[in-house]
Amino acid sequence: MKRPIRYILLFCTIYLWPASSIAQQRESPNIVLIITDDQGYGDLGVTGNPHVKTPTLDAFARESVRFTNFYVSPVCAPTRASLMTGRYSLRTGIRDTYNGGAIMASNEVTIAEMLKQADYRTGIFGKWHLGDNYPSRPQDQGFDESVIHLAGGMGQVGDFTTYFKGDRSYFDPVLWHNGKQEAYTGYCSDIFTNQAIRFIEKSKSGPFFCYLSFNAPHTPLQVPQEYYDRYKDIDPSSGFENDNRPFVEMTEKDKEDARKVYAMVSNIDDNLTRLFQKLKELKLEKNTIVIFMTDNGPQQVRYVAGMKGRKGSVYRGGVRVPFYLRYPGKIKGNRDIATMAAHIDVLPTLSELCNLKSPEDRKLDGRSLLPLIQKKAGWQERPLFFYWTRKYPVRYMNMALQQGPYKLVAQTNFDASPKDFELYHILNDPYEQHNLATENTTTVENLKTEMDKTYKELIGSKNLLNPPPIVVGTQNENPIFLNRNDAGGERGIWNQEEVFGKWNVVLTEGLYNIKFKFVQPVQKGGTMFLETGSLVSSMENDTDGMDSLEMTGVSLPDMKCDLIPFYAIDGRHIFPFWVEMERIQ
Question: Is the pTM of this model over 0.85?
Fold first, then answer.
């Protein structure tokens, strides 16, 4: 399913760089985009945390342009979709972190695809989380080189090559190198950094785009012992006695989780030391744009600079993150910009910095931040929309809209009146403690009107109404593995045995060998069913204790359908852990 050329054809414009193609190649800035997973605003020394040690990131922040009011989505896949496309995630088909809702439509134009039109080499190392099958994988979306894990995290059910490693899933993993399984040695953050450095070394003649997308410090909280030992004796709740900002009480488990998170962050900091040293060694530092950000607030309770909420929440603790941009050759650093900015602004900002046109055949929700960086007048404030609920947006549940100093928060019923909303003045009340809704009804009504307009527009997005299917049986991915992260059906499919699940697919006509892997061995005497639209195949099982069953030579037509597999026995329907399909002719 090759996307039409009209979706990806972009044109370079002459702006700052020399006209000849060779000179342009040499002058175009390299880009290193670094994002961490579940690292909150407060998980850095530079943002006031007295416990976590991040000397490299703290120094980097001091050298950078710092956007001090930078926002993302409350959870990871939506943030990454917006980051890659400059659009609200619902426009891209991303509506969840699993439940089949973390597959981005292939007709989206990513940063990588945009840059490839200007002959950039592109690489991703770490977490993708925007689809694990063709045509939504990194290599289908503009990346020349990819070393990633599957799904939303290593050790999760969707990442089946690490899931069964349990409390060692972050160590010596099997990862996916350009779509093929490959074994690696070491700790995951070290591996992803090693691969990023290797990519930079091979691409040093430039220009290149390196997307270093750490899965840490996301759960499971696994870290090398030497890093944990740095924090094993600290009390993460101490040191705030004279702090007037709100601080949530921490349980003993919260404190232990914080120790592990801080250890994982320190490991990332050490890895970035190596990365930045490599840029300097290769004399690439001056002409390289380096961005550091995180994808949402912290999952666990810990210091978050006094803000309300954490991961999954539309309050500031869930959506405000650090964002630092360094470009020594063109941009003066060590300064703050307080204007509200967001993940949707990254693609148009990089587009302008690289003298490229952003995609023009679709609506971009973001805008270039370069005028702010260059201190140009005329910046118009715009509203930012936030939401998070499972599966699809739920009207007025965990939803927010911020415009100027005011933020409207909806935590109420679908038919709520304006008085049921929350209104905060972020400049005067950055910790969202004082609800002004009853005393400022006009502002509530105006922001609610804008929220309703945005919500209605986004839930009508074509890629949301027509979810992107997984394409089965092409030479682009054969065999193909269907994992639980991308399975729809019941809400909350994880590692349950008896659960209704399905995959939205486009089948290519042919003969298939199909393997069904189960969480636990299945008993004999049952029947394996495979439903593909109106065509149903079945096979009796007379072997006990098997954790996988295989159908061979299954004939399937060209078809768009729900692929529904289950093992029926004694009135139970057992859903496979993953399905492998190989088209043999």
Answer: yes
